[in-house]
Here is the input.
Amino acid sequence: MPIPPIDVSPETEAAYEAARLQLRERLAAWSAVSGAILAPDAGEELLHYKWGYLDRHLTRWARSDLDAVFLELYPAKMIADDGELDQVLVEAATFVRFLADTGLLDPASEDPEVLCDHLEQIGPRFHRHMADASRYSMGKRVLMEATVRGVRLDDREAMQDFIQAFNASPLAERETVLGPLAGPVPAKGRTGRFTPPGTPPRRKPSDRRRHRRR
Here is the structure.
């Protein structure tokens, strides 16, 4: 059977989900042949942020796109342990190589070797930006405060309870958590209240299992 084409520039969330799953299946098939060691969610952040915040073209990549993802959006929205950050960039480079090897990398993209070299070069800045609290979005600050108070990010009910209690707390108390907001994803409105977005910041689990597909 012919392989169905991928809508690499989807316009709707449903079309994006279909394209994401197709790319994930192709990535798994490529890794089985290439022997690449991948986390189960390899490439997910690249696709998530490219579609949700950049130009919505999933297979067209330039160094400026990588900078936007890893130096702006990732620090603003993602919670990750410092010891995982180098692997995040390694996985991004693997995803770029997958696109290039399978002919999926859009011709308007920059050379894949240039992209992979750039991912290595931005490593130190990526670490600095991830540690810079002034770059955290409102959502990330609230979720980090929840984890400090013992709420697990994967406990949706407890997290919703925390957010409701946070929104009901005095403004001065909320401002001690939110502080001065900066960075590429400013909070909307002026109430200091946090409403979970459809695609919230997520934590990279510290025990992510990587495997070699056989």
The radius of gyration is 18 Å. The chain is about 55% helix and 0% strand.
